[in-house]
Amino acid sequence: MNEKDTNRVTAKLIRDFTRGHLTRREMLQKAVTAGISAAAVTSLASVSARRSYAQDATPAPDPSAGNTIVVPQGLRTDLSGQSIRAVLADSTSADGPFLEAALAKFGEATGITVEFIRGETSATDRLQAYRQEWAAESADTDVFQIDVIWPGVVAEHAIDLSESLAELATQQLEALIANNTIDGALVGMPWFTDAGLFYYRTDLLEKYALPVPATWAELATSAQTIQDGERAASPNFAGFLWQGNVYEGLTCNGLEWQVSNGGGNIVEPDGTVSVNNEQAIASFDRARTWVNTISPEGVTTYQEPDCQTIWVAGNAAFCRQWPGMYSASQDSDAIAGKVAVAPLPMGGGDGARNAATLGGWQMMVSRYSEKQDAALEFVKYMCSPEVQRSFMLERSHAATVPALYEDAEVQEASPFFASLGPVFQGGAVARPSSVTGALYPEVSSIYFTELNQVLTGSKSGADAAAAMESQITELIEGDDL
Amino acid sequence: MSKEVVSSPLAQRKERTAKVTDVPHSSWAKARERLAWILVAPSLLVVFIVALYPLAQSFHLSFTNQSLASNDAWRYVGFAQFEYLFDNEAFRRAIRNTVVFTVSSVVIETILGMAIALIINSNFQGRGMVRTAILIPWAIPTVVSSRLWEYMYQDNYGVINDLLVNRLPQLVDWIPGIGSSLASIFPAENIAFIARPSTALPAIVAVDVWKTTPFMALLLLAGLQIIPGDIYEASTVDGANKWQQFWQMTLPMLRPALLVALIFRTLDAFRVFDVVFVMKGVSVDTITLAIYARNALVDGDRLGRTSAVSVFIFACIGLLVFVYTRLVRVEEV
């Protein structure tokens, strides 16, 4: 082989390799069989090193990000030239390329420039940072991404969207609009959402010839059957996983238990406390019976990551989790293709129903912003069905516009989204953060502290419910200490 | 006789000081005094800014109903915050847990620390290596080591359960004769150490002991090393055994170092936050005073109540220091 041929072959190998047609190992093997000199192979190796380095250091900019976005009709163009700042994601979010593309399209359509800011990863820290900015009545940031439990806290710093974005509001999930309405003012526009889901292993249900559990009682027997069968092979196999630690996640789980049993909403929209009733107590006591039977004893210390670790290792039959675990399940060698989701089971008695606690993020326009019109147009654009649809297709963020779950392309893209529709429409339930406002963190803290004591066997369901009621009532009726 | 030896240099010093102060207010003395104040002023200022002012502010806040984020009007509420706290079940649990944590961790750490200090004070090969190595637990940031221990205690995949339930019984089963009865001592099922209300606090105390014993050992080792070796030789000649040497010589001479170590550890343990918060969060099974204060501030946004908790912690620590210093003085007399 002469030098010219060598160069040609080398160039082709490098090209194939950098385009991802060849692995590093294949490339080097081919180079050797082609009789390329040691020096050339070394240079090839250095190319391959550079490529893998590039892969590790920065995710390759995806030129296709945002190309499914259709710009909604009717955006104002008379605000051209203005520029606003918006907090849209946390510092670790991988949504960056999509968001940049979405902002660029918005800029083309309206002439408004949007600067994209990342916020703190921890929601608690993020709220603290926002609060500092609002306390100073700063006009630096125009649009804020807010958590589903914050509307009551942020209300005094937000403008009312109920008139300016009325049409968009009617397209959104009703439970979320209610959640974002404080004293008649719509303080946040839903952007994407989360809800408690029931994950199950299709292969195990098939193996034991069981249906997808529709009630908690059915769940308990199925979980026990599968757990008994699987423990022979894996001694730590768990029937049912959920989040029982002393934290906000337990409030989400507990709310699902009591609402699905017709036991009330912890605090009703009119401000009455509804935890100390027979159906709620029964739902707490039922959860207690799961601990150390169908759920591991340690479930009272589990948060989402603990459940996910056990789940993706294939060591559980059922799990209550947020939508995010679906992609992690598909990435796992142990359970990929064997996982499906359904609405969480329901309880018995009067008012029993499916219940899924809502999570997710909204957008709010700051009262202190000096460019509120441009900010409103931006919220209208980002929360529109069109952009939500792309966000769902490209980034798997569940939309807050129910009609999108009927969309043929969305259903085709992922059967997962098709199964989410019923969850949101049939059972979405919001935590009582709007009615309790700034007191919500303490209400939730009382609730999960008492509930955890039921789960560990320190208190009976009835005692805990009575304690919750008296403490929450005392808190709301206001000691002002 | 020994009293005289001790007191005479002291008396001399007193005379000297008296002479200096007896000197009529010369301009030289005044200038010297002024210079002293100027030199001390920055330190006093720093102490005032970083210690006294916040302390006074905490006392002040604890009698109000101020909140952190909102600028709403606030008012003085007298002792209402303290009344609320002592009526509150979680706060009483916090006091109990904090006392249990402090007493048990400090006692165990002191005994183990003493044993380790005595061992590494003796001469053996690789002593320097061992001295460095025992400091590793102390050098790991608490949040990291707490998380590690949390994983090890985990009931589903934790290594401690794996050892107790699977490995160790198999290991001892091999011992002929008593093997199978020895194996039956181990638990048959995984134990959720952190989840069980009865084992949570002991499990966390164990982590604190693992982490802080090296510190205790190091302080005591420093005390051991200033004890002259010849008195041991002398007492051996007089026929004292090792046990008598420890109780009658080592321990009394170690007392100053021991008291310093105890004060450090007790105050630290009384304010414990990180290890408990990382492993068990805000659960009432293990809530401590510092975690209670954190809840009042972060969840409740209640600056007044948080300050009241801080004032209570301050008062308890003040009392402990008073008791310890009294103990020291009693020993000196």
Please give the largest β-sheet of chain B. none
Task: Estimate the strand proportion of chain A.
Answer: 5-15%
Largest interface: A-B, 32 and 34 residues
The CATH class label of one domain in chain B is Mainly Alpha
H-E order of chain B: HHHHHHHHHHHHHHH
Tell me the overall shape of chain B.
flat
Write the layout of secondary structure elements.
The complex is a heterodimer of chains A (481) and B (333).
Chain A: H1 3-18, H2 24-33, H3 38-57, E1 83-90, H4 96-110, E2 113-119, H5 123-135, E3 143-147, H6 151-154, H7 166-171, H8 174-179, E4 181-182, E5 185-186, E6 189-195, E7 197-201, H9 202-207, H10 216-230, E8 238-241, H11 248-260, E9 266-267, E10 273-274, H12 278-290, H13 304-312, E11 316-321, H14 325-331, E12 339-342, E13 356-365, H15 372-382, H16 385-395, E14 398-399, H17 408-413, H18 415-427, E15 428-429, H19 433-436, H20 440-455, H21 461-477
Parallel strand pairs in A: 1-2, 8-11, 13-15
Antiparallel strand pairs in A: 3-13, 4-5, 6-13, 6-14, 7-11, 7-12, 9-10
Chain B: H1 2-22, H2 27-61, H3 80-87, H4 89-121, H5 127-133, H6 136-139, H7 142-153, H8 159-173, H9 179-183, H10 197-225, H11 230-237, H12 242-270, H13 274-280, H14 289-298, H15 303-332
Helix pairs in contact in B: 2-15, 4-10, 4-12, 7-13, 10-12, 10-13, 12-15, 14-15
How would you portray this structure in words?
Helices cover 48% and strands 14% of the residues of chain A. Chain A has helices at 3-18, 24-33, 38-57, 96-110, 123-135, 151-154, 166-171, 174-179, 202-207, 216-230, 248-260, 278-290, 304-312, 325-331, 372-382, 385-395, 408-413, 415-427, 433-436, 440-455, 461-477, and strands at residues 83-90, 113-119, 143-147, 181-182, 185-186, 189-195, 197-201, 238-241, 266-267, 273-274, 316-321, 339-342, 356-365, 398-399, 428-429. In chain A, strands 3, 6, 13, 14 and 15 form a five-stranded mixed beta sheet that branches. In chain A, helix 2 (24-33) runs antiparallel to helix 3. The longest helix of chain A has 20 residues, at 38-57. Chain A starts with a helix and ends with a helix. Residues 34-60 of chain A have low confidence and may be disordered. Chain B has 333 residues and is an all-alpha fold. Chain B has helices at 2-22, 27-61, 80-87, 89-121, 127-133, 136-139, 142-153, 159-173, 179-183, 197-225, 230-237, 242-270, 274-280, 289-298, 303-332. In chain B, helix 2 packs across helix 15. The two termini of chain B are 15 Å apart. The model of chain B is unreliable at 1-8 (pLDDT under 50). The chains are: A alpha+beta (481), B mainly alpha (333). At the A-B interface, helix 5, helix 13 and helix 20 of A face helix 3 of B.
